[in-house]
Amino acid sequence: MTSEPVRPYEYMIYPTLQTAWIRGKGILLFTGLYFVEFGAGLFLAASIFHSLWGETAGWLISGILGGGSHFLFLGHPFRIYRAVARPGKSWISRGLLIISLFQLFSFIHLVLSFLSINAAWVLFIAQVLAVATILYGGFEIADVKSIPIWHSGFLPIQMLVRSFLAGFSVLLAVNLMLGLVPGTTAGEWLSLTLVIMVCLFAFALVGIGLEEGREKFSLRMMMKGELKWISWLGVVGGGMVVPLIVGLYGLAAGGLKASVSLLVLAVFLQVIGDLLLRYGLIRTGYYPGIFPCMPKDFRR
Fold this sequence. Notes:
Elements: E1 16-17, H1 26-48, H2 52-73, H3 80-83, H4 91-114, H5 120-142, H6 155-178, H7 183-212, H8 217-223, H9 228-253, H10 260-283, E2 286-287
Antiparallel strand pairs: 1-2
């Protein structure tokens, strides 16, 4: 598998990497999807545990970083109203509509919360829209039937759970540093979340291999090709090995006995690992081509 420009007579003859979602302005689409999902996950976790700063941070990350990246990705940003006009036919239209409604109801909830006005129905709608916002990213990717490793019914669920747990772990880590939650309880929950996320990472990597079948072009490119350093150091080392050791130690020793700095470091590495795992998924997406395998002298 190669990331170099494909010769015209090779295009779609042998497996061909996609570039629209990750190269050039495509990187804005990738970062937009990530920040929208992470911000919505943080907002959802914070709303469940009644953390106003977490809700505000999640709303800002999703709206400014995620929404801003989506806005810059558009060829004609100021014609965005046209993209929302076809929600029945386009996941992009549905996504923009869902994100806009999530931003609106989250903003209303935050204003009411700062004014100490209780409106549970507004929060409930914002939480439902946060879930829909995360699922939108997964469904938008999984809807691409021509790329085997993307077209999976488990992908939206993976994105939902990982985004929520990433937001939950960041929320706990910051609260633990600021002394806003009991140390023992927060440490135990944080350790458990780290271990669960490691299992989800492993499930995602195994799922990539299973979706590809025998050839495993994407998995080979991630673990043995040009992305091997990112995958082994960022995903496996930083996102799985270190958090697993810290998480198991925290569970075995008790939350308070686990070092706060180690827990915070493990959370940071795992969030970066989740970002790199998503990058690897998008970066190694390929069209199978006419022939199911490549000749031995094919450029890798």
